[in-house]
Amino acid sequence: MALEHESDSALARAVRVAGSQSAFGRLVKKRQSTVREWLLADRLPGEYVLAIELATKIPKEELRPDLYVPVAAAPSMGSGS
């Protein structure tokens, strides 16, 4: 069974949405073997996050929560009266 079917990580979901590791690789102009390495590490390089979000509709905050803070968790910019 392919790695993307063994995990429910955002990256694995994005690969499933793309259809396969090869199809996902075509989205980011990388080989299937590179996508497999990313799945093994469960880490999408930051430079691909926005393109993958656009192509798969998986939010960037889920793909790389260390880089993109969910809006609900972002600190408030209020006046602090």
TrEMBL record:
Pfam families xrefs: YdaS_toxin (PF15943)
InterPro entries linked: Lambda_DNA-bd_dom_sf (IPR010982), YdaS_toxin-like (IPR031856)
UniProt xrefs under SUPFAM superfamilies: lambda repressor-like DNA-binding domains
Descriptive protein name: YdaS antitoxin of YdaST toxin-antitoxin system
TM segment ranges: none
Species the sequence originates in: Sphingomonas faeni
Molecular function GO terms recorded: DNA binding
Domain of life per record: Bacteria
